[in-house]
Amino acid sequence: MKLNLYLVKSALVGALGGLLFGMVTTVIAGTTGAITSAFALTPVRLGITVSIALWGTVIGALTAGILGERLGGRGALRIIAALYLISALGCAVAWSWPSLLIFPLIGGLVIGGWSVLGPAYIAELAPPKWRGRLVGLFQINVVVGILLAYLSNFLLAKLPLGNALWHWQLGIAALPALFFLLMLFTIPRSSRWLITQNRTEEAHQVLEMIGSPKSDADLREVIGSIHLDRQQSHEPLFSTRYLLPIFLAVTLGMFNQLSGINAILYYINDIFLAAGFSRLSSDGQAVIIGATNLFATLIAMSLIDKLGRKTLLLAGSVGMVICLAGVARLFPPISIHQPCSGS
Known about the structure:
By secondary structure, this protein is mostly helical. It contains 18 helices and no strands.
């Protein structure tokens, strides 16, 4: 089966939640100094403010499946995009520290949900031959979102916005959120979800729209896989036979996040300020880091089938240890914890 333009567009829209994920979690890096001054934040309160969206992603990821099962991936993503738009606009007009926590928390909740429902929607829509590569678009969009967050901070910092700068930096994500919300009205429901709702004819039409050359056979295959899943749903997940795979999957995800790179991404501007760069220059350095992150991700995606995931994970772990040790050696602890001034 060849890639169909309608399929590609639908997969891209589903994956663009990754872009919002990258933006909402890192855009605050360029505003830490300004919001510290605006709300007289202590280091502890600043840490809570920076991390509040991530706490929301945990809750959103754990609960998104319920919404997806009831409304389908497309319907759930529309609600999520609308809530993200509200979150971005709320961050832009935040008037107090509690409001600066509530709106990013909402953003984190919906982004956590999108991180589950977006890839799931793509996986349900895409044929097996292209499923892995299309689902991989989500991760690519995460690093693109990080780069866009840094780039928007840098470009906005060059404008004469004064004390309103951080409002614009946090609210700029409303533009892609609105675009994605509109685009969600141009993609179909997944054939798999339609079949679970006994809407088989609509499911068949979706398969034809995405260019399936054997839509009848593919429809029977999806129906068969759903029946098989329902038969296996009564098998306990936390049994001895699944203990090792679950342990490896969970710990791999945990150590990926606990590696230390998040601290670099979320405090990158403060790190460069501590190194002696100006506020504007630190914003520019952050753009370089974001571009490097994107470049490395694209290289990894191109090599994953040749070298294998294990080789890339081992190489990445060694590189991370070396780089983080270098950062820790260059900066004394007091430089990291002191709030940095700046607009």
